[in-house]
Amino acid sequence: SQKIEQNSEALNIQEGKTATLTCNYTNYSPAYLQWYRQDPGRGPVFLLLIRENEKEKRKERLKVTFDTTLKQSLFHITASQPADSATYLCALDMSTNAGKSTFGDGTTLTVKP
Amino acid sequence: NAGVTQTPKFRILKIGQSMTLQCTQDMNHNYMYWYRQDPGMGLKLIYYSVGAGITDKGEVPNGYNVSRSTTEDFPLRLELAAPSQTSVYFCASSYSLGRGEEQYFGPGTRLTVT
Prior knowledge:
The structure holds two protein chains of two kinds.
Chain A: E1 3-6, E2 11-14, E3 19-26, E4 32-38, E5 45-51, E6 56-59, E7 62-67, E8 72-77, E9 86-93, E10 102-103, E11 107-112
Chain B: E1 4-7, E2 10-13, E3 19-25, E4 31-37, E5 43-51, E6 54-57, E7 64-66, E8 76-78, E9 87-94, E10 104-105, E11 109-113
Parallel strand pairs in B: 2-11
Antiparallel strand pairs in B: 1-3, 3-8, 4-5, 4-9, 5-6, 7-8, 9-10, 9-11
């Protein structure tokens, strides 16, 4: 069956370090993979999108990689700050299922000062 | 632009009652979606719409109905509420076909069924 798995445990890191979050999937062939940020009591907010033919995407302190052989995406936040503390969701879009994103359960990141 | 707005923010229903969750977007987006999010979990797609008059089922449509009479509005109807429908409901919209288009989410409606 199809499955999306993000870091099973919450991630706690020290301010200034790089946070690395993982998104693994099985039995999908995603055309696109997106990362969203969700703060408590709020709706998700889009951060980055990466296409199946792209290996890496960057935006300011954020970097996403996409390895379709390993079926994995890594999401990095460099020089992390306490304000980066949130839950991060990955979402897969398949070209055969346009309009139907499938979300992972999210990873909660806490950055300690 | 207000973006995606949802009402109400909170609601408590008794088992068997019905209600409509409202969703409006002012970005002229064609695609709209309803998700539910249970505690500690990701988003599950309930229904989506590709334009006025066109809706389709998502992953968890049972117990819900939708309509899309205008581009702006996409209400979600709960008939005969059950405790299993206790969740946070998010409405979202995107501009075009949804092929990797980012989705814009509303603030959510927290629903409790007792």
